[in-house]
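Z., the sequence and structure:
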Amino acid sequence: MKKLRILLIVHEQLVPPDDITGKTEAEIDEWRTEYNVMSTLINLGHNVRVLGIGDRLKELRETVRDWQPHIVFNLLDEFSGIVSYDHYIVAYLELMRQPYTGCNPRGMMLSRDKVLTKQVLAWHRIDTPAFRLFAHGKRFREPKRLRFPLFVKSATEDASLGISQASIVDDMTSLKERVEFIHETLQTDALVEEYIDGREVYVGVLGNTRLTTLPPWEMDFGTLTDVQAGIATRKVKWDRNYQVKHGISTGAAKSLSAEQEQTLAKNAKRIYRALHMSGFARLDFRLRDDGRVFLLEANCNPDLSYGEDFAESAANVGINYPALITRIVNLGLSYMPEWRTFEA
């Protein structure tokens, strides 16, 4: 592809250094994705600027106006510290008629809102766990139609924030305590779902209108007990020492039948389209022993770190990391928002 002016937007505290010589793994982990993407774009020959975004948009507006990037590579997953505000940045870019990578504002809004996601998918008759929302600031009321065990999490936060072994509850007392924990600790609504036992499988999707699914990727909980392996807690997903200690890893899902793979791919595409997603996403499923597939999370703009699930799944079908980043850039350049359709 031709050499482009690419504006890489990241959180203001995650601007990567030009050189990582002498940096510890712990230091690199803070901005690993940002560095991986930046260095790959530079190595591909593009002219890259990195802009840290906090709670102001003036510098973004001025940079887009003055430098006129061919595309903005979006690595933000919040704005002003609020996860549900990240789609406003993309909407702002659309108002400036500026191409960008990743999901569009509508898809981001729908998929970030876990309750709205469930309501949309219920209309499409796509299986998700039965649920109840417990609003922050409201008195706890016992749910009448949910069956234990139940799984309690924040309705808005992601990256497993607030999820631990205590998130699975077996009685009303434990449920009340965990809901109150989410309210008090995270200051968000609590989403309570019926717990689905089964294999945790991730399916990556690339595309705008024509969609490509990546091979199913599975969480291997290593030496954790069956009880501990029930959910991917924050420690399971992000604590490297904990992962090494228990042999926790992810890899290509093994022993799936052709029918199971087809079902996962079909559901992933249906969900992607139902939520109006674009660019790339990762769909997190639970595959039950009886063959039923339940969506747990729809993640627009998932982690793009080299060596992590999405990139490894792509590499498994011959899309190496530079090719993956290039593909995401091309999808951003070819996406047709309303302003482009109007001008066509």
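The chain has a mean pLDDT of 91. The domain at 5-101 is CATH 3.40.50 (Rossmann fold).

Let me know what you think.
H.
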